[in-house]
Each structure stands twice: as C-alpha cells, then as structure tokens.
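Sanity check record (used in CI):
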Amino acid sequence: MNALRVQVVLAWPHRFLERDLVLEEGATVADAVRQAALGHADEIAGYAVFGIAAEPSTPLRDGDRVELLRPLQADPKDARRRRAQRQRGG
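Expected output for UPF0125 protein WQ53_15140:
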C-alpha cells in the first residue's frame, strides 16, 4: 500500500496548531484527526479539506490539508450589517 502525506490544521485568529502525518492509503478525515491528536475537540464544529466542507468519512489523497473548523464567533449577516451601519455614520 502507498502512504499518504497529509496535514491537519486547527487555527485561531493569532495562532495555529498543525501536524504533518503519514497515513495508509484509504485513510479518512476521521483517521487523520485521530492520529493528529491536536485536542480541542470541544472547539471543533466541522471539517474541511482545502476549504471544502468534508465529513469524517471523506477519503484523503496524498498532499491534502485537513482543516478543523471552529464555530463562528458572530453571525456573518449581523457583522456585515454592523459594518455598513458604521460606514454610514450610524
């Protein structure tokens, strides 16, 4: 079997954790997350591979970057509304 080299990343605004892994062919997002053992499971809201939403069962390919997604801090619509209001001087 061929080996897959993947990266698992968990990021915050001013810091990040990452692990470079070698997994067996056929490995999934869940396998990578488990082997990376980055912790912070309570902060994970989902997964992505190169910015595209993924499920734990998503198979990985050599060179993939698995991103551990955190919950949104603010509703994007509310944030845009507040910015527009500030720009109008409101």
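The chain has one domain: 3-87. If this sentence no longer matches the regenerated tokens, the check is flagged for review.
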